[in-house]
Design brief:
It contains twelve helices and no strands. By secondary structure, it is mainly α.
Length: 273
């Protein structure tokens, strides 16, 4: 692998690390990136790479939240350990809808919706929804500002919102954040629950893509995956910390405007092309 290819993989990892956690659609950015950053790899490998690279992003959540998500921590009291187990149960319940639909219809969804028109429309649509949500958000009262107040029914409904993210351009974090806030959570709880949901969802999605690709990786392909995941891991830590700090003082309107602009850019780019 030459120097230029290494730089390409690092840049793709950076894009993944930023866009996976901010509600701006990693797919929309990856589609544009793929037009300018042509990895010298097979189409089958690239399809798998753009999903499996997310494992690096996931490890950032695992590292940052290891204590909070570890039910066996000796530093936790019995109640805290029980609360952690309960949180995991809520996460797993919320993952069921997207897991079932994704496994049953993964190929059909890719075939029907993985195109620039769908991605552009979803970017713009959810950008508008973010703006409208924040306008409404000024008049509502937060009901869930702690995970102990998040019940199983609410977790499951947030999981239904996550199903919407199977359509490219929606943004998994965007769909679940909108759903959680509409159901009464604080922005902080909505963001953190989205991070936690990503762990089983992305591990599952990566396992499916690896199984379809096969385990007969070449040394070059393993190297590309490792570099991409490491890049995504490092940048994800920064992106997660940025988002949590940002929402303490700001709302999500900026991301709504950004999505609308990006959606228009994607649409114009491919039309003019």
């Amino acid at each position: 692998m030459d120097f230029i290819e290494i730089i390409k993989v690092i840049v793709l990892g950076i894009i993944e690390g930023i866009t996976e956690w901010l509600p701006i659609s990693s797919t929309g950015h990856m589609i544009l990136a793929d037009e300018f950053i042509k990895l010298n790899m097979s189409d089958a490998f690239k399809e798998m790479f753009f999903v499996v690279i997310q494992l690096g992003a996931i490890m950032a959540v695992v590292i940052l939240y290891f204590h909070k998500l570890n039910p066996f921590s000796p530093k936790k009291s019995g109640k805290e350990k029980l609360d952690t187990v309960t949180l995991w149960l809520k996460v797993l319940i919320a993952c069921v809808p997207a897991g079932v639909i994704g496994l049953l219809f993964d190929d059909q969804i890719d075939e029907l919706f993985y195109n620039f028109q769908t991605v552009s429309i979803m970017l713009i649509l959810y950008g508008v929804l973010f703006i409208l949500m924040e306008v409404w958000n000024k008049t509502r009262k937060v009901k869930i500002n702690d995970f102990t107040k998040l019940n199983y029914k609410t977790a499951l409904i947030i999981g239904v919102f996550q199903v919407l993210a199977l359509i490219p351009g929606t943004s998994r974090s965007g769909a679940t954040i909108i759903g959680a806030i509409l159901l009464g959570t604080s922005r902080f709880i909505a963001a953190e629950f989205t991070f936690f949901l990503a762990i089983p969802v992305m591990f599952g999605a990566s396992a499916v893509k690896i199984a379809k690709f096969g385990l007969n990786f070449t040394g070059l392909e393993i190297g590309v995956l490792m570099i991409g995941m490491l890049s995504a891991f490092i940048v994800s830590i920064l992106a997660i910390k940025f988002l949590l700090g940002y929402i303490k003082k700001h709302d999500f309107k900026f991301f709504g405007y950004y999505r609308i602009v990006l959606g228009i850019i994607v649409l114009l780019f491919f039309w003019l092309k």
